[in-house]
Automatic annotation (TrEMBL):
<keyword id="KW-0521">NADP</keyword>
<feature type="domain" description="YjeF N-terminal">
    <location>
        <begin position="13"/>
        <end position="241"/>
    </location>
</feature>
<keyword id="KW-0413">Isomerase</keyword>
<comment type="function">
    <text>Catalyzes the epimerization of the S- and R-forms of NAD(P)HX, a damaged form of NAD(P)H that is a result of enzymatic or heat-dependent hydration. This is a prerequisite for the S-specific NAD(P)H-hydrate dehydratase to allow the repair of both epimers of NAD(P)HX.</text>
</comment>
<feature type="binding site">
    <location>
        <position position="82"/>
    </location>
    <ligand>
        <name>K(+)</name>
    </ligand>
</feature>
<dbReference type="InterPro" id="IPR036652">
    <property type="entry name" value="YjeF_N_dom_sf"/>
</dbReference>
<protein>
    <recommendedName>
        <fullName>NAD(P)H-hydrate epimerase</fullName>
        <ecNumber>5.1.99.6</ecNumber>
    </recommendedName>
</protein>
<feature type="binding site">
    <location>
        <position position="184"/>
    </location>
    <ligand>
        <name>(6S)-NADPHX</name>
    </ligand>
</feature>
<keyword id="KW-0479">Metal-binding</keyword>
<dbReference type="Pfam" id="PF03853">
    <property type="entry name" value="YjeF_N"/>
</dbReference>
<comment type="similarity">
    <text>Belongs to the NnrE/AIBP family.</text>
</comment>
<feature type="binding site">
    <location>
        <begin position="81"/>
        <end position="85"/>
    </location>
    <ligand>
        <name>(6S)-NADPHX</name>
    </ligand>
</feature>
<dbReference type="InterPro" id="IPR004443">
    <property type="entry name" value="YjeF_N_dom"/>
</dbReference>
<keyword id="KW-0630">Potassium</keyword>
<dbReference type="GO" id="GO:0052856">
    <property type="term" value="F:NAD(P)HX epimerase activity"/>
</dbReference>
<feature type="binding site">
    <location>
        <position position="143"/>
    </location>
    <ligand>
        <name>K(+)</name>
    </ligand>
</feature>
<feature type="binding site">
    <location>
        <position position="187"/>
    </location>
    <ligand>
        <name>K(+)</name>
    </ligand>
</feature>
Length: 259
């Protein structure tokens, strides 16, 4: 069952977040905890791909045994807050033995505390070559490369673009795309206009924080975002005086809790 909610621009969301951040509210940890919850739900629907023979198409199914191998998750982490959200969520998934998690850092800079937490929980840092046949080796990819902070020009560049285009090419050659969960917005999608080029991982689910971003509902947004899950971070007061930029249908609203 879907629910209609307002959509806002990146600037409106950032302005609503600012008083909470200034007050020391741990928005990143709240977002990461909710993100990990959604990923757990997604993983519960699909069989681990680590045991899948190469080039065999695998449809999502219910796991039959708790003793089955853990599903494998690939985290793509950029240099900003989205990368931090993704890595903290990865730490939770690994620590709770929900998944076997690999992290691919696609920028020279990264959220150091989040990476330390992830590695400490058992997440393995890999390079692009080690990702292998992504459609075969991973049940799910967590796209945390870029968020709304890159709204001036969100097109992927450098190693991030190389990683996404390479993973897309491999998945298409294999005939299977793993389930993609986008962190806040699909990386490379403009959060206000929905503009995007071809270097974007099409999400199965987008877990968007605080409010639905206008770009998820316009341009290529509906094509690339998949199902929308809204994480309520408590921005209602900050957004109360803002005129919504549009409206969206979300499949679920997750109430963020204290980590």
């Amino acid at each position: 069952m879907s629910e209609r909610v307002p959509a806002y621009t990146a600037a409106q969301v950032r302005a609503a977040e600012r008083p909470l951040l200034d007050a020391g509210v741990p928005l990143m940890q709240r977002a990461a905890a909710a993100l990990a919850e959604v990923v757990r739900d997604e993983l519960a629907r699909i069989e681990p791909t680590a045991v899948t023979p190469p080039h065999r198409t695998l449809e999502p199914v219910v796991r039959q045994s708790p003793d089955a191998p853990l599903p494998r998750v690939l985290v793509l982490a950029g240099s900003g807050d989205n990368g931090g959200d993704a890595l903290y969520a990865a730490a939770r998934l690994a620590a709770d033995a929900d998944a076997d998690v690999d992290a691919l850092l696609v920028a020279d800079r990264f959220h150091q505390d989040a990476l330390t937490s992830a590695i400490g929980a058992g997440v393995r840092r890999i390079d692009l070559a080690e990702a292998g046949d992504v459609g075969v080796h991973y049940a799910l990819v967590l796209d945390g490369i870029l968020g709304i902070g890159a709204s001036a020009d969100p097109a992927l560049r450098g190693s991030a673009r190389e990683a996404v285009t390479d993973l897309l090419s491999r998945a298409r050659a294999e005939g299977r795309m793993p389930r993609i969960v986008a962190v806040d917005i699909p990386s490379g999608l403009h959060p206000d206009t929905g503009e995007a080029d071809d270097a974007v991982l099409p999400a199965s689910v987008t877990v968007t924080f605080g409010a639905v971003k206008a770009g998820l509902t316009s341009g290529r947004g509906p094509e690339l975002a998949g199902d929308l899950v809204l994480v309520d971070l408590g921005l209602g007061e900050g957004l109360a005086t803002s005129e919504p930029a549009g409206e969206a249908s979300v499949t679920r609203i997750v109430e963020a809790r204290e980590p």
